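Run log // design_07
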């Protein structure tokens, strides 16, 4: 068990399990986009570790860029999504893969997809390390899912609790 601020967390997904799943996701992406050029868009801050590890396993002609969105305060979604850092790449006619650490309600992804559609990409796919099907109310389910998890709060491997805990090399679930 670990302590992050005022909450206690227990190990949920080990770093070995994460590494194995990241490699598996990259293998799927490599097969699906063979001989294609892809723009990966990593959603900051949470996806930085996942995006880094994923890109090391991707064997495609590709580029990566970053956007930053926000919808959380503490352990709760605020119910709104604020665009913080925009996209500077030309996506017209290109395959796009959004790299996200976690998709729960889907509100952030709804906003991202609506922004990307204005750029006329050839295709848009979503690759999320974690997916909470019980919490999902959005319009765009992930195309590539590392782990489907219950609707509990998690931290580590880029995921945070009030900006703390991102540096943990495994994923921990809140202990109620």
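design_07 sequence
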């Amino acid at each position: 068990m670990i302590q992050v601020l005022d909450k206690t967390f227990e190990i949920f997904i080990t770093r070995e399990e994460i590494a194995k799943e990241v490699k598996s996701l990259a293998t799927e992406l490599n097969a699906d986009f063979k001989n294609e050029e892809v723009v990966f868009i990593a959603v900051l801050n949470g996806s930085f570790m996942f995006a880094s590890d994923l890109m090391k396993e991707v064997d495609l002609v590709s580029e990566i860029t970053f956007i930053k969105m926000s919808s959380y305060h503490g352990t709760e979604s605020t119910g709104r999504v604020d665009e913080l850092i925009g996209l500077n790449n030309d996506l017209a006619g290109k395959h796009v893969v959004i790299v996200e650490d976690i998709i729960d309600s889907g509100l952030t992804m709804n906003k991202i997809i609506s922004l990307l559609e204005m750029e006329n990409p050839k295709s848009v796919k979503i690759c999320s390390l974690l997916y909470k099907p019980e919490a999902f109310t959005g319009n765009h389910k992930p195309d590539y899912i590392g782990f489907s998890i219950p609707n509990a709060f998690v931290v580590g491997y880029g995921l945070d609790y009030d900006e703390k805990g991102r540096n943990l090399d495994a994923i921990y679930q809140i202990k109620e």
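The mean pLDDT is 91.
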